Structure formats: structure tokens, C-alpha cells
Q: What sequence folds into this?
């Protein structure tokens, strides 16, 4: 049995997963950092030199991949103390215009993939009656924005899964929480998927979407990096009992609070005014 | 049989029973022409009886299959040249603790409740945009606001529906299309009898079997208190008369109460309340 705490993190080639692997390893965790494309491991490998990090390939879209990796880790260490479900991407485009394949791809990673990894890890945690699971959700799981409705819907689903799972696994002394990053300056932009219709210039909303994307880019350019998200992760892992949600960043903290004060009607009016700037 | 009509044309999915069926009845009585979709021709009896005496027309539509959705919508548009109202309603509930659900169980839940809605929207929205008018109501649930154990997959799908309704409302507004969500609490529909259970829910090896049983008892009690589906149909009919429609209509006192609590309380307080309701969910000593 491994005597260090063991953390399994998905989506570690860049961004939040990359940063989290590094920081947790520095804090004494034995980290299993996984990524879909092991060819992109170069940066991480260099960054974690000398630290207890093992880099493994894991495509959460594949039905059995998570079970295989998890049983290999369990055999080796006998424990998984922390799971960080971070692998995910954003699909951008107007809701009406996504193809079946695009919709499925978004959910395959952000929702079904997350559950596949979680369900693979839960038996290991149940056996030891201990464990913490962190889902990387988003501010987009609390509020919606035109042009990223599909992504928002997948992150809303993650919020619901977190809430249900918290109660379901509590008798096994397992805790679940969701980290909600707001706008963060990571390669999220580069990894996003733009709807085919938009890419081909055939969208009925071409110019609206163009402005929404430009706005989103400008926002994330001036946003803090993945460190603020890792700070929220550390806060969650350091707490005696984890809360339901850990917002990361100014917008993720304050936008939902502002929303709380507004009635549905007033909030709808605000959104209408916001959307108007993307029109014409 | 149908002719050029001044009546508003409404398309309702999942209309062979429950909210969909009742809404078809109400809208027809309020001088809409209703196209009511069904999936299973074995459950068509009530809808056929309704179609015989009202301006209701049954249409076969499998919302999990794009060609079927496109074919059904095209058939309506060919006849009527427009669709004024879309009620996205076809859905079901997948019960079971999340670890007891297979990959396929979770996918099936989303395939109908979320992707199905998106498929119908994809087929209908362009028709509405062309005319610069239309109303879309997505039937969500109180489970789109509060996520209970043993219903996590269903809640996740209904949370997604909430996000979709909210986004679509912004995206389609410039085209003169209004979008709203109707979120019912517990009602006496076939959502309980047509519920499916995850692969391992009934297995003796499930670590959650005792908790599942307790949750079933709790939910059976809740649903026994449920309101009549016709109340929701009435609310939908009224919502369509609002100009403009509100973003969200909560249906039922339980839905309003739970949504209010969730709004009022901090997460910790709400969890404290949940723990009182669900005594088994405690940390082991």
C-alpha cells in the first residue's frame, strides 16, 4: 500500500489539469496525470521532473479506458484519495445549429466521460471508505450565455450530478464537490470546438457568433490563469468537510450572487440588453 | 382533411399520455390545431379517441432519431406551411444511484430528454424564423433546479433543459420567437410507471440497494400527493397567451416551494434540510 495520498487527474496536457498535477505533486501527493493524447505530454513531463507524477494516456470518451487505468492504479497503490474530473472542452455555436455528432461529442467528454471515470474510481474509494471527488464545472453551469448554450447545458448537468452524488456516496465517507471556474486564461480557447456551420460560414447567425467569440476571447485574455482554479481546488481539499461549490475567480463568485438578487424577469431583461450588443 | 386554417398550429411531442396528451386536449379546446406526436403505436388508444372528436392529429415521431423528427416536422409544414407553437415534452425518468447506472443508461436518459429536444428545435426553429414568429415551450422539471439522490441522471438532463431554454430564449428572440420553460413538480402522469431503472439498481450486489429502497418509498409518497396533469396543461395554455411569455413557469405548489427554498437558502442550509428528509445519508462514524 502506497503511504502517500494518491490523486488521479484527467485532462492534464494543458490548463487546469496541468497546473493541478504540478501543485498537488509539490504538496506531497502521488499524482497520476492523464491525458487523451500522450504525444502532448512533453511540457508536463519537463515541468514535473523530480516530482511524484506519473503520466498516463486516458481518453475519457472511450468506454472501458477509465476502468483499465483505474484498476492499474489500484493494483499498484491500493488507493485513490482524490479524483479531479477535469477533462472537457467547450462547443461554441448557436444551439439550433449543432449536428447530432457535435452534441454527442460535447456530452461524451463533459458528462458521460466524467461519469465513466467517477464510476471506475468509486469502488476503490468505497472499499477504503474514504475519498474526495472534484468535478471541474464552470460558471457556465450556473448561468447561460448565448453562443455557448450547448457547453452550458453540459455544465448544468455536471452541477446536478454533483448534487445527487454528494448525498448518494456520503454513507461511504466519500465527498463530492464542484469547482466552478469563471473566465480563465488557459488553452481552453484553442481546444474549443466551433460549430461546423459557423466554420463553413453557413450559419444564419454568422456575424452574431463572430462578435460573441471576439467578446469571449477578450474576456479570457485579461482573465487570471489556471492558478486561481488550483487555489480553489486546494481550498476544497484542505477543508474539513467539502462544500458543494467552489467558485474560482471574480466573475464566478459574484455573477451568481448578482443573479440571486434579480427576479427572472429583470434578469431576462439584462440578458436581452447584453445580447443586443452582438446584433446588427 | 386539413385545410388552410387561421388557427394557430401547435406541435406537441410525447403526446400519447401525461402532460403532452392533456396539453393536446386543452389546446384543441382553445381553438388551436394540434399535431400530437407519439412513439409507440400500442399506446395510441387515447390519442386516437381524442383525434376523432377534436382538431388533433396524431403524428409518429421518434425524437431519438433525426430522420424521424425531420420527416414528422416536414409533414406538418407541408400541410400547414407553418408551425406556431412547439411544446417539447417527450421524456422519461431514469431512476437509480449514479454508480448503479451503466454508460448506456445515462446516454439513453440524455438521448431522449435533451438531445431529443434539440433535434425537434433544430427542425422547427428555421420554420419559425422564416415567418418571424413562434413560441417554444420546453417541459423541464423541478428536478432541473433540485437534484435528488436516485434521480441524479434525470436531474442532470433537466438541468440541461433549463440551460437550453434559457440560452435559446436569448438566441431566438431577435427572430420574434419566444422560448419558455414549464417546470412541473410531482404530478400523476406515467412518469413513474414509464420510469426505467439503471442496470444494477435491482442487483443484490449494488452497494446502494437499501438506500434505493428507502428513496423509492420516499418518492412513492411524494408522487401519491401529485397534482393532476391537466393542471400543467392549463398552465401551458395560459402561458401561451402571455405576451411576452415569462422565462420560467413553475407548476405546482411543491415545485414552487422547493425552488423557493433553493433560492432562499445557502448550500449548507439546503443540505441540512435534505439530510433531515433523507436520514440514511450521513457520514459513517
A:
Amino acid at each position: 500500500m502506497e503511504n502517500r495520498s494518491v490523486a488521479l487527474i484527467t485532462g492534464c496536457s494543458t490548463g487546469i489539469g496541468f497546473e493541478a498535477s504540478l501543485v498537488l505533486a509539490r504538496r506531497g501527493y502521488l499524482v497520476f496525470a492523464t491525458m487523451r493524447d500522450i504525444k502532448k505530454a512533453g511540457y508536463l513531463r519537463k515541468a514535473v521532473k523530480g516530482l511524484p507524477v506519473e503520466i498516463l494516456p486516458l481518453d475519457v470518451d472511450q468506454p472501458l479506458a477509465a476502468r483499465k487505468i483505474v484498476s492499474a492504479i489500484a493494483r499498484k497503490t491500493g488507493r485513490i484519495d482524490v479524483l479531479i474530473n477535469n477533462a472537457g472542452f467547450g462547443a461554441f455555436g448557436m444551439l439550433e445549429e449543432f449536428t447530432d455528432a457535435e452534441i454527442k461529442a460535447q456530452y461524451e467528454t463533459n458528462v458521460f466521460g466524467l461519469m465513466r471515470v467517477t464510476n471506475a474510481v468509486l469502488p476503490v474509494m468505497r472499499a477504503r471508505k474514504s475519498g474526495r471527488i472534484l468535478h471541474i464545472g464552470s460558471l457556465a453551469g450556473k448561468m447561460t450565455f448565448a453562443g455557448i448554450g450547448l457547453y452550458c447545458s453540459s455544465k448544468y448537468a455536471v452541477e446536478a450530478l454533483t448534487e445527487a452524488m454528494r448525498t448518494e456516496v456520503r454513507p461511504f465517507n466519500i465527498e463530492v464537490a464542484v469547482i466552478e471556474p469563471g473566465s480563465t486564461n488557459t488553452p481552453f480557447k484553442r481546444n474549443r470546438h466551433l460549430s461546423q456551420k459557423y466554420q463553413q460560414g453557413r450559419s444564419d447567425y454568422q456575424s452574431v457568433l463572430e462578435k460573441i467569440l471576439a467578446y469571449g476571447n477578450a474576456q479570457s485574455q485579461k482573465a487570471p490563469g489556471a492558478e486561481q482554479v488550483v487555489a480553489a481546488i486546494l481550498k476544497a481539499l484542505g477543508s474539513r468537510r467539502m462544500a458543494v461549490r467552489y467558485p474560482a475567480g471574480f466573475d464566478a463568485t459574484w455573477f451568481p450572487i448578482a443573479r440571486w438578487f434579480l427576479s427572472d424577469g429583470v434578469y431576462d431583461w439584462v440578458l436581452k440588453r447584453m445580447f443586443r450588443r452582438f446584433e446588427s | 382533411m386539413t385545410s388552410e386554417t387561421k388557427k394557430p398550429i401547435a406541435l406537441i411531442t410525447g403526446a400519447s399520455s401525461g402532460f403532452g396528451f392533456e396539453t393536446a386536449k386543452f389546446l384543441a379546446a382553445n381553438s388551436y390545431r394540434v399535431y400530437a406526436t407519439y412513439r409507440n403505436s400500442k399506446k395510441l388508444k387515447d390519442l386516437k379517441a381524442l383525434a376523432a372528436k377534436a382538431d388533433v392529429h396524431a403524428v409518429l415521431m421518434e425524437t431519438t432519431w433525426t430522420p424521424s423528427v425531420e420527416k414528422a416536422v416536414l409533414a406538418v409544414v407541408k400541410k400547414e406551411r407553418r408551425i406556431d407553437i412547439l411544446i417539447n415534452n417527450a421524456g422519461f425518468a431514469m431512476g437509480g444511484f449514479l454508480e448503479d447506472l451503466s454508460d448506456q443508461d445515462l446516454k439513453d436518459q440524455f438521448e431522449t430528454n435533451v438531445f431529443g429536444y434539440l433535434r425537434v428545435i433544430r427542425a422547427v426553429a428555421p420554420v419559425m424564423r422564416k415567418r418571424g414568429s413562434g413560441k417554444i415551450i420546453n417541459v423541464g422539471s423541478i428536478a432541473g433546479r433540485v437534484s435528488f439522490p436516485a434521480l441524479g441522471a434525470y436531474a442532470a438532463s433537466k438541468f440541461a433543459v433549463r440551460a437550453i431554454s434559457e440560452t435559446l430564449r436569448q438566441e431566438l428572440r431577435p427572430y420574434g420567437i419566444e422560448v419558455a420553460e414549464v417546470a412541473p413538480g410531482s404530478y400523476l402522469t406515467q412518469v413513474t410507471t414509464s420510469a426505467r431503472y439503471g442496470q444494477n439498481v435491482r442487483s443484490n450486489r449494488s452497494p446502494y440497494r437499501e438506500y434505493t429502497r428507502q428513496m423509492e418509498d420516499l418518492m412513492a409518497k411524494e408522487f401519491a400527493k401529485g397534482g393532476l396533469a391537466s393542471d400543467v396543461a392549463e398552465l401551458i395554455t395560459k402561458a401561451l397567451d402571455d405576451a411576452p411569455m415569462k422565462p420560467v413557469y413553475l407548476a405546482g405548489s411543491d415545485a414552487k416551494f422547493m425552488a423557493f427554498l433553493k433560492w432562499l437558502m445557502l448550500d449548507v442550509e439546503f443540505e441540512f434540510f435534505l439530510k433531515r428528509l433523507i436520514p440514511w445519508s450521513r457520514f459513517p462514524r
About this structure: The radius of gyration of chain A is 19 Å. Strands of chain A lie at 6-9, 30-35, 53-57, 82-85, 91-92, 131-136, 174-181, 193-194, 245-248. The first strand of chain A starts at residue 6 and ends at 9.
